[in-house]
Amino acid sequence: MSDDDGRPPSPDPRRGPASDEGVLTRLRTAEEGPLLFVREVLTSALAVLAVGLLLFAVSGVWPPMVAVESGSMEPHMHKGDLVFITGPERFAPDASVEGTAVVTAETGAEVDYRKFGGPGSVIVYDDPGAGGPPIIHRAMLWVDEGENWYDRANPEYMSADNCRELANCPADYAGFITKGDNNPRYDQVSGIADPVRPEWVQGVARVRIPLLGWVRLTLANSMATTTPVAPVSLDSVESVESGESVGSVDVMPDAAATDDVPTNDATTNDAPTIEATAADAPTAPLQVEPSALSELSVTVTPMRAGALAA
């Protein structure tokens, strides 16, 4: 039969199915049903990916957003805020410490450089010897190796009468002295962190978005698991009694972080375990002999899951 008899030609079996283009067309034009749902999901995912890539291109660090986990930076940052950060060497002001984009509060007060309600830069840093998530605090001073920085420091933020009585003085190495705006003392005085080396700085805070960080914190809390921890030493009680807090931040979950949770090797099956509830709370102060602390094993539920610390 000839091709001009009025019937359409038979499809060529060697070609791919004509339905390929049909599916894309239906996906693009669907107004209801599963195809509409798939299109909306793909569109949202692509939009989020595009925004993430744009923020990464600007910030130069991943993740470019961190959620504040405590109130140590109040009133300028609050728990649940989402903070946009840039790389530690990006967009460096003229007054920044050489090799970084960080302006200390000491220098910021002289040149009128202010961020988040105070002089100097607010940084996110991670002290590898301290453990826990990264911390978001203000850079107060830059000290050189071997420097006696007692005379440069604000006496209101210390608990010593001279350098010999001051922790990390003279400085063992060059780094930043930091402090939470809502904390009474420097981090390096209260034992929160050692002087912050430049390579510990993960980012410089640029923009704060109120409340949006609660989404990330809620997801992190929902992933938290009950984890045994070692007893707290008596040496760390002083900083707790002073009312200081650590401005930690929650960033992208790190699977490796959950593998490095410290365990108490000294705990045995015979060691007593404490389980406290509101109904069992004592009405009088609880007094425990120091010698008994090493025999205790406490189970707690951490508020962070695989988090780096603001």
Structure description:
The protein is an alpha+beta fold and 310 residues long. The chain has a domain at 65-255. The chain has seven helices and twelve strands. The strands form three sheets. Strands 7-6-5-8-2-1-10 form a seven-stranded antiparallel β-sheet. A hairpin with a 2-residue loop joins strand 3 (114-115) and strand 4. The radius of gyration is 28 Å and the shape is elongated.
What about the largest sheet?
7 strands, antiparallel
Low-confidence stretches: 225-241, 252-310
User: Can you list the strand order of the major beta sheet?
Assistant: 7-6-5-8-2-1-10
Tell me, what's the shape?
elongated
| Content of β-strand | 15-25%
**Count of runs of 4 or more consecutive helical residues:** 7
Order of helices and strands: HHEEHEEEEEHEHEHEEHE
What is shown here, in short?
This protein has 310 residues and is of the alpha+beta class. Helices cover 21% and strands 16% of the residues.
Task: Write the topology of this structure.
Blueprint: H1 19-29, H2 34-59, E1 65-68, E2 82-86, H3 105-111, E3 114-115, E4 118-119, E5 122-125, E6 135-143, E7 175-179, H4 187-190, E8 201-209, H5 214-222, E9 227-229, H6 237-241, E10 249-250, E11 273-274, H7 290-293, E12 297-300
Parallel strand pairs: 11-12
Antiparallel strand pairs: 1-2, 1-10, 2-8, 3-4, 5-6, 5-8, 6-7, 9-12
